């Protein structure tokens, strides 16, 4: 009998047995998400890909690391990141976010498959922000050396 394994985790998770999640789901603060960086050309709505490094605002909502909550007084820009978005988040997809989006706070990941990776790796400041925010992320480089 053949058994198939379907990894329901995002493709950037290197070890499905080593994943810790934030205890509560989080709503996205779409007003803090830069439309220039995250707008889907097909829908015109903002979209955050799974694996996006996120920070939490004082309101409890999340946004990509480096975002500013201009509605806060004074403006709030978190200096730490709390983890990686566990699934894609889509603006105005109310059923999708009813209980909030999951956040991965502990995992072994393929760093070069993360959406925030530039030239195959996260910026050193982003890794520091994750560590300072309490995330325990271990990084590996994905490569596929199978012959075509």
Report what the structure shows.
This protein is mainly β and 148 residues long. It is built from two helices and eight strands. The strands form two sheets. Strands 1, 3, 4, 5, 7 and 8 form a six-stranded mixed β-sheet that branches. It has a two-stranded antiparallel sheet with strand order 2-6. The longest helix is centred in the last third of the chain and has 9 residues, at 124-132. It is globular and about 55 Å long.
Q: What keywords describe this structure?
A:
148 residues, mainly beta, Virus Head Decoration Protein, Chain: A, six-stranded mixed β-sheet, 9% helix, globular
Q: Mean pLDDT, rounded to whole units?
A: 89
N/C terminus separation: 28 Å
> Which series of helices and strands comes N to C?
EHEEEEEEHE
Second rung of CATH, namely the architecture: Beta Barrel
Query: What is the total number of structural domains?
Result: 1
Which class best fits the helix and strand makeup? mainly beta
Number of helices in the DSSP assignment: 2
Shape: globular
List how many beta strands DSSP finds: 8
User: Helical amount among residues, as a percent range?
Assistant: under 10%
CATH H-level name... which superfamily?
Answer: Head decoration protein D
Percent of sequence in beta strands: 15-25%
Major pleated sheet: 6 strands, mixed
CATH class: Mainly Beta
- Rg over alpha carbons: 16 Å
CATH topology: Virus Head Decoration Protein, Chain: A
Low-confidence stretches: none
């Amino acid at each position: 009998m053949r058994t198939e394994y379907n990894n329901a985790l995002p493709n950037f998770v290197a070890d499905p047995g080593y994943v810790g999640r934030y205890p509560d789901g989080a709503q996205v603060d779409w007003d803090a998400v830069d439309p220039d960086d995250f707008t889907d050309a097909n829908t015109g709505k903002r979209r955050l890909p799974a694996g996006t490094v996120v920070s939490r605002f004082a309101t409890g909502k999340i946004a990509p690391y480096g975002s500013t909550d201009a509605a806060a007084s004074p403006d709030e820009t978190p200096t730490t990141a709390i983890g990686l978005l566990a699934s894609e988040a889509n603006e105005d997809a109310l059923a999708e976010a009813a209980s909030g989006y999951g956040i991965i706070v502990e995992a072994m990941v393929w760093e070069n498959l993360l959406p925030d990776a530039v030239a195959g790796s996260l910026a050193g400041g982003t890794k520091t922000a994750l560590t300072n925010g309490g995330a325990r992320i271990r990084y590996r480089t994905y490569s596929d050396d199978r012959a075509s």
